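Quiz preparation item.
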């Protein structure tokens, strides 16, 4: 079956954060990380069937959803998870905070720079000190990470694949990281929500799989919100091999987190059981969109586009243009993007290319006009 990824769906004047940010301005929104594609028909049908059931009482994570998760990660990531490791959480972002709270001694926190906002805010949310280490297209700056660990950091927050850069991490990357984690008796909370959005036919490699020797020190967050465009139906799993950390997390969730959302679990179960063909076609479209973006902007010497290996997000260095606030400048030309300051990297922007080709072409044309007007 062929799925339609070129259909324009009008999202203005509804509940879309992405499309209503600019009101009635003539601005194409290419900022927040959700896509403009309709969900897989299998998910839509599963939700309709669940609504027809008519009762939405308290629910638990049933065996079918657990089995779907285990089978999905075994097939897609070649990652074999013990079912006992899974802990249901309301969503990835609160899960970041719950995961750190559940540690006996989180110490200070360290996280990569740039990184998407919720990871960078965990330290302040929990009143813990911390600092950053660099990451770019070449990977993590492990020397800076070691300095943070020497200064007392004991919890390392990761985003794999990296948002906003789109960098994937290799066995060698992880082995070098694991050596530091062991040496400094540290722990890792890894947000792998973009792991199903690998471009060019690659397969995501989770840290736990790459370095099983530190599995007891790693908590991995997984969800279908990004890959299946169901961010508005939040639900996630924490994968926690460490029994004590897992029990502590469950205790933290009790009384603070709501019971799992029926609609969200229905959608995710359908995605993992019946959404693989849709996802494979999506990845082809995203790879084509990535390549179109790269070629369209390739002749602009004032910018550098970091070629994403995963996600539907492109990270662009605009510092040569000397725009004080690049997102504000681009807004004047009718394009809405995420400013680098949101990721603690002034002078950069992040563009979301998870949209129909026509929308992407219009947005990139406006980007080019903004650059050319600055010459």
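Solution:
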């Amino acid at each position: 079956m062929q799925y339609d990824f070129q259909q324009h769906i009008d999202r203005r004047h509804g509940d879309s954060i992405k499309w209503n940010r600019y009101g009635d301005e003539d601005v194409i929104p290419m900022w927040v990380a959700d896509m403009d594609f309709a969900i897989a028909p299998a998910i839509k049908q599963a939700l309709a069937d669940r609504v027809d059931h008519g009762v939405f009482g308290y629910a638990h994570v049933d065996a079918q959803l657990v089995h779907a998760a285990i089978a999905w990660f075994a097939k897609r990531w070649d990652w074999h998870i013990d079912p006992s490791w899974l802990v249901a959480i309301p969503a990835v972002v609160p899960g970041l905070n719950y995961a750190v709270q559940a540690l006996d001694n989180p110490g200070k926190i360290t996280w990569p720079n740039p990184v998407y906002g919720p990871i960078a805010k965990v330290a302040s949310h929990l009143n813990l000190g911390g600092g950053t280490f660099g990451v770019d297209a070449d990977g993590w700056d492990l020397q800076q990470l070691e300095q943070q660990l020497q200064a007392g950091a004991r919890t390392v927050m990761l985003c794999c694949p990296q948002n906003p850069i789109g960098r994937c991490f290799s066995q060698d990357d992880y082995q070098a990281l694991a050596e530091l984690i062991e040496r400094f008796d540290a722990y890792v909370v890894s947000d792998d929500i973009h792991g199903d959005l690998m471009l060019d036919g690659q397969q995501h490699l989770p840290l736990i799989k790459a370095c099983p020797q530190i599995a007891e020190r790693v908590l991995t967050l997984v969800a279908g919100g990004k890959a299946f465009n169901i961010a508005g139906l939040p639900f996630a799993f924490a994968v926690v091999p460490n029994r004590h950390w897992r029990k502590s997390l469950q205790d933290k969730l009790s009384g603070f987190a709501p019971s799992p959302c029926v609609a969200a679990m229905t959608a995710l179960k359908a995605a993992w059981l019946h959404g693989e063909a849709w996802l494979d076609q999506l990845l082809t479209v995203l790879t084509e969109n990535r390549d179109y973006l790269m070629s369209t902007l390739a002749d602009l010497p004032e910018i550098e586009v970091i070629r994403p290996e995963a996600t539907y997000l492109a990270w662009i260095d605009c510092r040569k243009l000397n725009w004080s606030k690049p997102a504000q400048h681009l807004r004047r030309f009718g394009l809405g993007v995420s400013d680098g300051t949101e990721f603690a990297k002034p002078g950069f922007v992040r563009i979301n290319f998870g949209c129909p080709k026509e929308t992407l072409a219009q947005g990139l044309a406006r980007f080019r006009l903004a650059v050319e007007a600055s010459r």
